[in-house]
Every structure is written in C-alpha cells, then in structure tokens.
Amino acid sequence: QVQLVESGGGLVQAGGSLRLSCAASGSILRINHMGWYRQAPGKRRELVATITSAGGTNCADSVKDRFAISRDNAKNTVYLQMNSLKPEDTAVYYCNCNAFIPHRNLEVWGQGTLVTVSS
Q1: DSSP annotation of 119
Q2: Which of 70, 82, 92, 105 has its CA 20 to 30 A from that of 20?
Q3: Could you tell me the sign of the dihedral formed by the alpha carbons of 37, 83, 117, 22, in that order?
Q4: What is the pLDDT of residue 109?
Q5: Contact, 50 vs 80, CB < 8 A?
Q6: Strands of 67-72's sheet in order across
Q7: How many whole angstroms separate alpha carbon 71 and alpha carbon 89?
Q8: Is-contact 74 53, C-beta < 8 A?
Q9: Residue 110: HSE in the Cβ half-sphere, 13 Å Cα cutoff
Q10: Residues 6+ apart with CB under 8 A from 38
Q11: Nearest CA-CA partner of 93 in 1, 4, 2
C-alpha cells in the first residue's frame, strides 16, 4: 500500500505564507501525478494544483498567481508554496497521488492538514 503524510498547515495572518509538504511511502514503483485539493467548511473538495512526474503543472485560477506546486521525485514528495494567503484560502488541504505498486495502480489521499488564514 501507499501512505501520504502531509505537514506544514497552521494558522497564518492574511498576506502571509505557508509551505505544505506531502511525502509518499510504501511499496512504490512509480508515482504519476501528485496534487493538492482543499475543502472549506460547507463546500465541496476542489482542485488546488497538480503536477505530473515530468513537472508539468496545473493550478486553479483562484490560486495560480499566489501558489506554486513542486515535487522531489527522489523523495516521493510534493510541496505547495502558498503566498499572499487570503481568508478564503482557509480549508483542509489534502494531498493526492496516483501510484504504481506491484500489480496495482492506486489513487491515494492523505489525511488532510488544516490551513487557517485570519483577517
């Protein structure tokens, strides 16, 4: 199996920055895309940003001028640098990846990390 462990969430004032990290572990042969999603109270989970194994990225329009996704393939880790944070960025942020393990392809989710932006 594959596990994702997120870190880096917390409380920050509007205009501040945070960096989220997510490390994948397990019997991993290869990780394809990795990404970040978020879910605010009372709202559906939404895409924040994704990154392919080759480094191609896709960001939601609401964050693409403020957030940047990157990954370290050697460490099976994906990062989300969040700058100029706004109160509306407050949400639980979930890491996601598509991974190949022996004989299987898995879609895996982390447990989530809370980001709270105060005004």
Answers
A1: -
A2: 105
A3: positive
A4: 97
A5: no
A6: 2-7, 18-26, 77-82, 67-72
A7: 21
A8: no
A9: 27
A10: 45, 46, 48, 89, 91, 92, 93, 94, 115
A11: 4
